[in-house]
Each structure stands twice: as structure tokens, then as C-alpha cells.
Amino acid sequence: MKDDFPLTPELLIQAYAAGVFPMSESQTDPDVFWVDPKRRGVFPLDRFHISRSLARRIRREEFSVTADRDFGGVLAGCADREETWISGTIARLYLDLYHRGLAHSIEVRQGDTLVGGVYGVALGGAFFGESMFSRRTDASKVALAYLVSRLRAGGFVLFDTQFLTAHLASLGAVEISRAEYRTRLAEALLVRADFHRQGPSPSPQEVMQPRGQTS
To answer: For residue 5, what pLDDT is reported?
Structure first.
């Protein structure tokens, strides 16, 4: 369904709280449509799967990982592909939410080069994962591992991935019904979580430590 109203940061926040999110057909498409999947992908925060190879990569600290240091760079990296739903309009809105403290990013660097990352929106105890990118093997997986660790530490109870892909399923994501998602979302919005409670950057041991918090 095409958007008939001017898309503002306030409207975007209301949409997330109602369980819908925006997309565009392409980077240059001026139109936006709202998406409300019948089946929703979520990450149970206590069951994120770290393979042996990914664990070795994290322990070796082949990448440096930060949070909210280069939101614009991560956003641009996610949109830098032949087909993208991140239009210029949507990108500007997420930048606005970032400056309001409602959108966050995880940056993965190799040396001084940004090689991967993930970004999303946080409301209450819900984190809505929007997009990720990778320019080195496992860079996006490392970003997700650090993000899950941060969400656990910050008291988040819902990690929404929007859709379930084979890649996300291999890392522990599952699919739930729209009705169950709405129930979990309503509960999560009442939670006071803090994306930065973990501090600037957790250690590899913290990232790989399982915790008993669920989405």
C-alpha cells in the first residue's frame, strides 16, 4: 500500500510501534509503502548461534567493532547494492532517528576500512533490525553477534528481523505469526532498555557468553 501521507520521523516511530515498517521499490523511488508480514522473523536473544568458525574469528579479533560511530557509513553500505529498498527519503528519515537516539548501528572495520555493519531502530525493549552489509567474509555475522550481545546487556526482549531468510535462520532466527509478534511487541514497548548499557565495545568473551534472556 502506497503512503498517502508525508513520511516524517514521528510517523515512522508510530508505524514501528504499530508493527509495520516502510520500504521503497528502489533507491530513487519517491514512493514508500508499508509492510506488515503475515509471518515475522525474530531472533531469540538466548539462542543466537555462533559457529566454531565464527567464534574463532571473533576470538582472533580480526575486526574492530564499534557502536554508533558511523551510522551514515553503515546506512550507505546497506544501500550500496544493485537492488535496494532504502530510498533517499527513507535514508534521510533513519538519519533523523539516529540523531534523536532512536536508530543505532554496529560498525565492523578491518584496519581503517568499514567492511560490514548492521543498523536498526530501538523503541522500548524492542529492536527492529533494518539491514546489514558485508564486504569481508563473516563481517555481517560478527556485526550481528556484537549486536545481540549489546541487546542482551541492554535489557532488550525483542529483536525483530522483519523477514526470515536462510542466512538468519542459520544463526538462530525463527518465524512467528503476526498475532504472536504483535503480542510480543506490545510487551516489549513497555520495557526500558538501554542500547549503550554495555559500554563502547564488549570483549570477545562477552560477545560469546550465553545469557538467559529471550525475545
So the answer is: 53
- Cell representation of residue 75: 546506512
Cβ contacts of 118 within 8 Å, gap of 6 or more: 74, 105, 106, 129, 131, 132, 140, 143, 144, 147
Across the chain, mean pLDDT equals 90
Q: What is the set of domains in the chain, with CATH numbers?
A: 38-79+104-208 (3.40.630.70)
Q: Is the model's pTM score more than 0.70?
A: yes
Q: Are 98 and 35 contacting, i.e. CB atoms less than 8 angstroms apart?
A: no
Residue 212 has pLDDT above 70, yes or no: no
